[in-house]
Structure formats: C-alpha cells, structure tokens
Amino acid sequence: MLDRRRFLQVVGAGSAALALAACEGGAPGSSGAGEEGGQGASEDAQPVAVRTSALKGPTAMGLVRFMSESEAGNLADNDYTFQIVASPDEVTPLIAKGEVDIAAVPANLASVLYNKTEGGVRTIAINTLGVLYVCELGDTVHTVADLRGKTIYASGKGSTPEYGLAYILEKNGLAVGEDVTIEWKSEHAECVAALAAAQEGAVAMLPQPFVTTAQAKNDQIRVALDLTKEWDAVQTGDERSSMVTGVAIVRSAFADEHPAAVDAFLAHYAESVDFVNDHVAEAAELVGSYDIVPASVAEKAIPECNIVCMTGEDMRERLSGYLAVLAEQNPEAVGGSLPGDDFYYGA
C-alpha cells in the first residue's frame, strides 16, 4: 500500500516572468472540468500515485489550492506529488523518461512533445489563456490600429510571443517591418528599460506577472492592449481559437491505465482554478508561500493572468485553432505538424 501522507516537492528557481507562462479572473470555462472530473473516480478505487510538474508562473498559480489541499492531507482519492520547475527544458526530460505523469507546459511544447513521442502525450486542459499585454509610457495606444508607425520592444523572437503578435497585427492590416517596427530584446527587463529610455511613441509587449512587477517599479507604465482580447476580436465565422499560453498534458500510457485518476485530477484542478480566481487575496498568499512569485505581485497579477481550466471540446477547438496559427507561421513551433485528434483528451 502506498504511503498516504501527502508531500510537496518544490524545485528549481528562476524568473517569475515566464512569457508562457500562461489570467483573467473568472474567465469563461474556468470550471469546465467539473463534470468530466467526476466520471472516473469511485469510493472503492485504490489510490494512484500521480506525479505532477508545473512551471513557475501562471501555470503553477492555478494549482496552488490543489497543492495545499494535497499537502495538508485533505485529498483521499489519490497520492499527489508536485514539483515546480523554472524552465520548460526541465519538464521535457521528465515526461520523456516517464518520471512525471501530468505536467503544465507551454501550449506549443505540448504539440512538440506529442510529435517527438509519436503520440506519447495528450492535452487534458488549457490552464492559461494569453498573458501578453502591450504597455506604454503615455496614453496614445487604445486600439491595435494605434500601433501604426510605432516601435514595439519585445522578447521571445522565434517563439510563440512573436507569432501571436504577428497574427494580431496582420489581422488588423498592419505589416511587421512596414507599418510596425519590432525591436527584439533578450529579456523582459530589457524591454522595460528600452521603453523608459525611448522617445515618445514607443511601446513594449510584456507578459504577466512581469507587467505587475514592472508597474511596481514604474507606476507610469500603462497597459494599453490585452492581446488575448485582441486575438478574440479578430475571430470570424465559426472560428473559436484563442491565444493559449499553457496547457496540462498527461502521458498517454498513464491516461490509458488510470483514466479515473486523470478525471479526479481534473476535478481537483478545476476547483483549484475557481478558488484562485474567486479568492484572489488568499490564493496570492499561497502563491507566495510556494515561491512562485511574491504574494503582493500575485494579488495584483492573478486577475490579469487568464487562469482557466478548459477541457473537452472547448479545449480542442480553442487549442487546435491556436496551434494552426502557429503552424502557419512556423511548422517547427508545433513540432513539424499539427497533432492528431488523439491529442485532445476527452474531446
């Protein structure tokens, strides 16, 4: 019999400003796993060891209630352990070696892992929608059209922030290099420094919770555009894609062997996400206690981090559309090809 005591292993360090990393309070679908999560578990089910890894940043924020309840021994269905790591590069080998069962990762990395492992992982939930914002020192940008003629300082060239920004600009009739100049920096802090030193009219693209951290140091920084909302605004017809930062994935072998444990995990996850969005101050204290970001930063950032728990068909439609946008701009961003239908758990 497994030791029923719960424990939490927190490892790694690094910046809390992951561009992924990956939440508007009470966002639609935030409790979407509730029905699905209750299907598999039964009173007679034996506890299963469920090893989970999450990234420092918004993807881990949604888990804090789940982690604290598990650590306190309040969850009796399975034996949950968690580790928080600083970089997606730390998660990939853990999945490949079967050392974790469920992981919160960047959305495009989930597709890359699916292709590399030949279907060895599935996505069980979207856990973070977009966390990217256009900020400025001033009050000149109120629509995407207002970016015409401006320089945008940004980091993340060759990755999803670049592709997401380009998509939104293109859908609004702006061409990168012609109508808008993007000056790429290696770090978010460099973007803020460049913004502060720039001439009037410059803006920066920054992720949460780094936006909140930057505003704490310079209260003149204004959020001009929420790129998640701008993404939604350019959807037409039957399109339901969303800007997606993070997802939760499961090893396919684990899902096949323990479907009830996966469903139970999703139920706890959905409850945790609802708690984080509905009880921000208390959740922020938990975020700080797990050294994800300071509690003071978390309390201001959580409502802007688009933390959700979207599952099933809603997850599939939004995520598949997002991955299709990335693949159109650079197929390697999703691992060379779009994942098959089996990638979407429960859809």
Folded structure, characterized:
- This protein has 347 residues and is of the alpha/beta class.
- It has 2 domains: 34-130 and 242-343, 3-Layer(aba) Sandwich (D-Maltodextrin-Binding Protein, domain 2), CATH 3.40.190; 132-233, D-Maltodextrin-Binding Protein, domain 2 (3-Layer(aba) Sandwich).
- Helices cover 38% and strands 19% of the residues.
- The strands form 2 sheets. The chain has a 6-stranded mixed sheet with strand order 2-1-3-10-4-11, with helices on both faces.
- Helix 6 links the parallel strand 6 and strand 7.
- The radius of gyration is 20 Å and the shape is globular.
- The model is unreliable at 1-44 (pLDDT under 50).
Q: What layout of secondary structure does this protein have?
A:
Blueprint: H1 34-37, E1 49-55, H2 58-61, H3 64-71, E2 79-85, H4 88-96, E3 102-106, H5 107-116, E4 121-129, E5 132-137, E6 151-155, H6 160-171, E7 181-185, H7 188-197, E8 203-207, H8 210-217, E9 221-226, H9 227-233, E10 244-251, H10 252-257, H11 259-278, H12 280-289, H13 295-301, E11 307-310, H14 312-329
Parallel strand pairs: 1-2, 1-3, 6-7, 6-8
Antiparallel strand pairs: 3-10, 4-10, 4-11, 5-8, 5-9
Give a nutshell description of this structure.
With 347 residues, this protein is α/β, with parallel strands linked by helices.
Strand content: 15-25%
Distance between the termini: 34 Å
Give the number of helices.
Answer: 14
| Secondary-structure-derived class | alpha/beta
Q: Let me know the average pLDDT.
A: 87
- CATH class category of the largest domain: Alpha Beta
If you consult CATH, what is the topology of the largest domain?
A: D-Maltodextrin-Binding Protein, domain 2
Q: Label the overall shape.
A: globular
Order of helices and strands: HEHHEHEHEEEHEHEHEHEHHHHEH
Largest sheet: 6 strands, mixed
Multimerization status: single chain
Q: What is the domain tally?
A: 2
For the record, the CATH architecture of the largest domain stands as 3-Layer(aba) Sandwich
**Strand order, largest beta sheet:** 2-1-3-10-4-11
Helix content: 25-40%
Provide the low-confidence segments as ranges.
1-44
Radius of gyration, Cα only, in angstroms?
A: 20 Å
